Amino acid sequence: ENAQKRDCTEADITTMAATLSALYGVGRRAVTVSGQQLFGVAVRARIASISTTVSCVEGTKGQATTPGWLDRFPAKAAYAVQWGDMDALKHVNNTVYFRIVESARIELMRDLVAAHPLFAATGSGLGPILAHVDCKFKLPVFYPDTIFMGSTVESVAGSEFVHLCQMFSESQGRVVAESRARIVCYDYDSGRRSDFPPDAAQALQELVVPS
Predict the structure, then answer these.
(1) At residue 143, what are phi and psi to the nearest 5 degrees?
(2) What is the CB neighbour count within 10 angstroms for residue 98?
(3) Which residue of 28, 57, 103, 160 has the fewest CB atoms within a 10 Å radius of its CB?
(4) Structure confidence by residue, pLDDT tens digits, 52-91
(5) DSSP 8-state symbol, 58
(6) Average pLDDT over residues 14-23
(7) What is the CA 74 to chain-centroid distance, rounded?
(8) What is the Cα gyration radius of the chain?
(9) CA separation for the pair 79, 95 (Å, rounded)
(10) What is this structure's pTM?
C-alpha cells in the first residue's frame, strides 16, 4: 500500500536474474541493466535475431543460418517460444507442440495449394481433413528459444497421406519432437472420404522425401 515506484538497481536485477534462472533456466544474459526496462534490450535483440533466422529459413537471405537438417524438407517454418508456453514443470507444455505442428501443417498446405486447388479446404467439394495426429517428445524445451519446423509428406495411399513434422531447437541444436498427422481426402458435400484425384496424389507424391 505504501510502496513507491523506483528504478531497479544492479543489485535488484542480479537478485531477480538469479531467481528467474533457478525457476526457469533463464540466465543472467537475459536481463538488461538499463534500470526500469528489465528484459527490454534483450527482448529487442532476440526479436531481431529471430527475424533474421526466419528469413534465412524461408530462403530470402540465403542458407547461412539454416540448420542443415532442414534442407531436405520442402516446407519450413519457425516458432518463437513464448514465456507463457511453459507450465508448472518449467518447460514448454506438451499441448503447445500441437499448435506448432498445426502451423507447420498449414505451411505445407499452402505449398500444395499452388499445385492443386483441392488443398485449399474451402469446406465444400473435395478437401483435406485431419484424421489423426500424434507427437513424440524427445527433449524438453525452455524459454527463450526458437523452434524450426521441417515438414514433408511421408507417404501417400489412396484417400490419405501422412504429414511428417520434425521440430528443431535452436538453443539445444537438436531435434526435440517429431509429429505425424494422417490427413484424409474428404468429400464435404457427401460427408464421406474419397480417394485423391490422380493429379492431387501426384502433387503429394512429389513432396515425399526418401528416408
Answers:
(1) -85, 140
(2) 13
(3) 28
(4) 343 333 333 323 334 467 888 888 889 999 999 999 999 9
(5) T
(6) 48
(7) 15
(8) 21
(9) 14
(10) 0.67
Q: CA 125 → CA 2, 7, 46, 136, 193, distances in Å?
A: 66, 61, 44, 33, 11
Query: Which phi and psi angles does 44 have, rounded to 5°?
Result: -60, -40
Cα-Cα-Cα-Cα dihedral sign, residues 120, 191, 151, 137: positive
CB 57 within 8 A of CB 107: no
Contact of 167 with 100, CB cutoff 8 Å: yes
Which grid coordinates are listed for 12?
535488484
Q: Which has the closest alpha carbon to 182: 121, 136, 132, 128?
A: 132
Q: Nearest to residue 167, comparing CAs of 143, 139, 188?
A: 139
User: Quick check: 200 and 121 in contact, CB under 8 A?
Assistant: no
**Cβ neighbour number for residue 70 with a 10 Å cutoff:** 17
The label of the residue with cell 516446407 reads: 75
What are the tens digits of pLDDT across the range 6-16?
A: 555 566 555 55
Conformational region of residue 186, where left means phi above 0, alpha means psi within -120 to 50, and beta covers everything else: beta
Cell numbers standing for residue 166: 520434425
Q: How far is it, in rounded angstroms, from Cα 112 to Cα 150? A: 15
Containing 111, the helix (H) or strand (E) segment is helix 94-113
- Sequence-separated (6 or more) residues with CB below 8 Å from residue 99: none
Length of the chain: 211
